[in-house]
Amino acid sequence: MPQQAYTDLETHFARIGRIRNALGILGWDKDVMMPSGAADGRAESIATLSVLCHELMTSPVMGDLLARAEAPAGSWQEANLREMQRAYIHATAVPSDLVEASSRATSRCEMAWRTARRDSDFASLLPLLTEVLERTRDIAAAKGAALGLSAYDALLDQFDPGTRRTDIDPVFAELRRDLPGLIDAALAHQDRRPAPLPLAGSFPVARQEGLGRTMMTALGFDMSRGRLDVSIHPFCGGAEDDVRITTRYEQGDFLNAVMGVVHETGHALYEQGLPPEWRAQPVGQARGMSLHESQSLLMEMQVARSRPFMNWAAPLLRRTFDVADDDPAWSAENFYRTVTRVRPGFIRVDADEVTYPAHVLVRYDLETALIDGRLALRDLPDAFNAGIKALLGLTVPSDRLGCLQDIHWPSGSWGYFPTYTMGAIQAAQLRAAAFRDDPAIPDAIGRGDFAPLLAWLRPRIHAQGSRLSTPDIIRAATGAPPSTDAYRAHLRDRYCGPE
Amino acid sequence: MPQQAYTDLETHFARIGRIRNALGILGWDKDVMMPSGAADGRAESIATLSVLCHELMTSPVMGDLLARAEAPAGSWQEANLREMQRAYIHATAVPSDLVEASSRATSRCEMAWRTARRDSDFASLLPLLTEVLERTRDIAAAKGAALGLSAYDALLDQFDPGTRRTDIDPVFAELRRDLPGLIDAALAHQDRRPAPLPLAGSFPVARQEGLGRTMMTALGFDMSRGRLDVSIHPFCGGAEDDVRITTRYEQGDFLNAVMGVVHETGHALYEQGLPPEWRAQPVGQARGMSLHESQSLLMEMQVARSRPFMNWAAPLLRRTFDVADDDPAWSAENFYRTVTRVRPGFIRVDADEVTYPAHVLVRYDLETALIDGRLALRDLPDAFNAGIKALLGLTVPSDRLGCLQDIHWPSGSWGYFPTYTMGAIQAAQLRAAAFRDDPAIPDAIGRGDFAPLLAWLRPRIHAQGSRLSTPDIIRAATGAPPSTDAYRAHLRDRYCGPE
């Protein structure tokens, strides 16, 4: 009864999906609401539910059903079955003692990293980070064997299903070749133009929050199925039909919060646009982290850091903070210049759109070499600093501003970094295709009407769930294979153009 | 290996406890944070985790371990084992198709009740309420058989373990005899004194909230292990080490919110004072709903609606709302008169301390008669109205203000009502014993120092968890068996006294 086996699998996965939804709310609460004294108890509750999910996923009945289940060729159920298989292999490939050893290693390393980063003390972190790397390599080998992939591709597949080094390497090679020249050209172009006027002042948090809600709603966020709150590190989380984004506010700088809200709204629109009929099923989940990042960067980089967007936003910003319409610092043009300012720096999360890929390229080179065993962990700081020097021309003064700045490696998220730049590339390609298919979109953005853009994205990206691979989604949406053409054109046009 | 069996049981129950903690946060979020569109998905997540708890509780391994486990006589582990057995019997006594039928019936009836109450339309609710009553009687019969209890006692035991009708009946008989006379005496006494001056004005919610936090903290609430938020119906929920209370604010009346916060803080202090070494174990949970209510009523009725409390609170209230010290409406005496005003009315949740028991007596009489089959549900409205007439002298004008006002019966919480008044009685007995043991407590309250009172309660009530029965906790704490003496003396002294 392959039909019945498939139906039973849907029931099983729906159950897992509902526990995951619970975990999404518990995780949000941990970062947004939870009092400090509840941390240990919450960690235990989250661990218990995570283990339950893992037990349900790896139960013998699951393997038995997967071996027998069938779905009609070309149906969404067939894609769902494929995603079930993928999830099952990922869950069962790693023996439970290795899962536990890795979890312990990352917990300890993450804790130690907070101190090591503050003190710029790589040496103190080295033993714990070595343990994390070794366990990550063990996991990569186990998953690689089960999936028929190289070690690094197996790690990548956790975050970006189907994406391989062979997809990334040629793209990143182009970028590595062009980026230094592009940065030089952008800086030269910028130097020929007046610097943006500063936006000094004190901007009440309540008004910044109201502004964020106005922007989210304008972009298409459904407030009846989500929330906006505050956390130290902004994120998009929550559950199906309950998509929760966060931001943080600084009295002295509202543009950071605005851009942060727009970014997380891009993620949230993807989640809110997933097909309701596939709810709680693997095929109904977002495709992967690069496509997810494409949605946030499409909204933040492609849309919000543009002149049409600022034409709409400038009057709204002036009204929000009671600024006169003729204040030159509050003109659309000055906002545009402010949010497209290029300034090479040490910190990835503070980087502008042009220099950001350099940070990713350096980390990708290093993490592939570390996973492959071509680089020793003790040599990481020198190699990191050499990479930054080569691409950005900067001399890293301390590991705090260098290889210790990100939580990804201490927390075991190896294979994650490339998805940021792959997402930026996809965002450019999708935006170009949307503007081509519906030339009315840019003018609509200039009026604060984002419905045409969302109408283009909804069926082509959001409603696809995980039915196709990321490249196939891009191909179907844009009519062309994934390529860096639009991305490089975008950077040239915006940052090295004649204006 | 009875020792190993016991240890395994602790592990099993800890797992269930952690899922319950997760459910506590999900339930809090549902009422405080969740956007409306997430209701269906949340209900599914909560149902999935509830079923998981039930599966873990009723698994064959649990019965096997319970049959083999032993713990040293007189140890807390022995009490834990007894509570495990109790939980197991409650969970396994009811066949799963009856659990499901009851859950379906209560869901439908609760939904219909909202409309029926609004429209005062008992007839429309009758078929659904009949279904709920029938399923509740089935559950009562099944649990009664497993526990060796009568049907109603089995229902009571769900909310107040160990309490039986034989404990309640004599107490309620005394009250039924004395209450009409007591109410008359209180009203006559009240009429001989000036009416309280009205506290008119608009009181900003932010200040009311700050006031609530000040009061909670003064009473001993640990803000690092809990929160205060807003919900439509105030409650105390959350999880171990994460006790969350809610209130609601009205611009025109801050005393309601203050008293509500004090009430929920009483519940929360109990939860925060449960023994950490028994965390996630059945013996580490609060004893039952009557003792829980005793803690909230001790703080609200015994402590906060008193002259010493108002001597401390009056200046704080004046400062909070910028009122002159000599405003007679804002004197301690006027606050005291306001919060001890007696006014017979139709709505239980709005009732004062003197008339409240009448509402409970009526409901207790009716629900025991309905469960026993001595009363037909179609006769409920008339019987309800007759009960209110007899005890309060009021003619109920509509079922909205009568038997349709509470959610308890439609939602299947039969056997809950008596715990309110049993708790009020325990609160008076505990307060009297505390004041006797430490005569410095009243003066300390007058200075806003609640530490001596909490120091008395912590070891005697909170840290007992579920080690003893409720009567044994009362006996050990007060040196006397449970009795209504202190309660009736309290009502006479406060409401019919010479002052």
From TrEMBL, chains A, B:
Its EC number is 3.4.17.19. It comes from the Bacteria. The keyword Zinc applies. Zn(2+) binds at H263, H267, E293. It is an enzyme of class 3 (hydrolase). Its cofactor is Zn(2+). Keywords: Carboxypeptidase, Hydrolase, Metal-binding, Metalloprotease, Protease, Zinc. It catalyses: Release of a C-terminal amino acid with broad specificity, except for -Pro. GO terms for biological process: proteolysis. Binds 1 zinc ion per subunit. One of its GO terms (molecular function) is metal ion binding. The active site is at E264 (proton donor/acceptor). SUPFAM superfamilies: Metalloproteases ('zincins'), catalytic domain (SSF55486). PANTHER family: CARBOXYPEPTIDASE 1 (PTHR34217:SF1), METAL-DEPENDENT CARBOXYPEPTIDASE (PTHR34217). Broad specificity carboxypetidase that releases amino acids sequentially from the C-terminus, including neutral, aromatic, polar and basic residues. Belongs to the peptidase M32 family. This is Metal-dependent carboxypeptidase.
